[in-house]
Amino acid sequence: MKYVKYGRYVPDALDGLSAEDLMKLLENYLLDSGFYSQFYEFREMDGEQTLENLRQALLDAIRESQAVPEEVLQELMKRMAEGGEEGESELERALNRLIQRMAEEGYITIDAPPETGRLTDPQSGGASGPEGRVKFEVTDKALDFLGFKALKDLLGSLGKSSFGRHDTRELATGVEASGSTRRYEFGDTMNLDVNATLLSAIERNGLKVPLDLDYEDLQVRQSEYQSSCATVLMLDCSHSMILYGEDRFTPAKRVALALSHLIRSQYPGDSLHMVLFHDSAEEIPIGQLARVKVGPYYTNTREGLKLAERVLSRQKKDMRQIIMITDGKPSALTLDDGRIYKNAFGLDPLVVTETLREVGRCRRNGILINTFMLASDYGLVNFVQKVTEICRGKAYFTTPYTLGQYLLMDYMEKKVRKVH
Asked: Which residue would you say has higher pLDDT here, 378 or 123?
């Protein structure tokens, strides 16, 4: 005789976490800039984007954020320890399901499905097993989510609820009419002012039926002309950005993601490009920002400005600007023969002179430079003030905690301020 056996339903403690919750928990791990690489001997995780490290990071984040009651985690860890090396524990299966959920919703891509991987209990000091060489990659959707989260956090602290655009004093024909009416010219948007058009025809031929409309009767409504801006965000990724016991590069990456999301969602006519400068300089796509770590060592500000200038020369926008985030003085210079001259001690006259000459070239080409300085050294302040004086830009002396607020405020102010 067939029968059905019923048991008490025990919900999974981790199933209540959505993919968005997991991304919030893993934000620091996914945007790691290499701050802990200088302490390898004290760090269990090697920083690679492997499933083993992802499981361990997820477990640590759940524990630190108290997203799951501590007694539940302790019970799961106890069962894992009692299970030994044979098969998956309940906790490992739950973490694998969470990773698979992130993959199914498009936040990460993995080379193979999550398999058994021995976890490390930070309190017991256990070692991880041989599995974990399977790599994963962060997707554009994940970067967009992290950018939106950073933007929401920053604007929430500012009390902003809406964004503007680059307003000017010029008038143009558009859909959003806010100006007077004028005669239609070839190439204008056909946003007809029907009343003015009919009145022009009546004044010319009198009131009769049918009404004779001519080309010169067409009247269009005008709207405020809104200009576009090309921006290059220059990020200093020299080793000083993670020295002195403070991670300054990860907040800069968050700000870059927030600015990218702001431009893409609110100012589609604008463009944003990323330039990293260290011993030399390189342009990277926004999609690679999460994987960027600090290094090499020195600060070649002049090479970064030259590359940013070349990038902006390809952009046909009304305004062009460079936003430079740095915490150190220029300490490297690319010579004419390709060699890199380096001097980390003080403000080298050769390096400073060539860097300021490049700033002047940007000014002559109509490129504005705004500098966000994460240090307050006296000599460095004088150098930044000289850069600001030459290019007529702005200098902000801020901290990693207030960098995003200052940068976004500066960018959005350009949207509501009249430009000439």
From this structure: 378
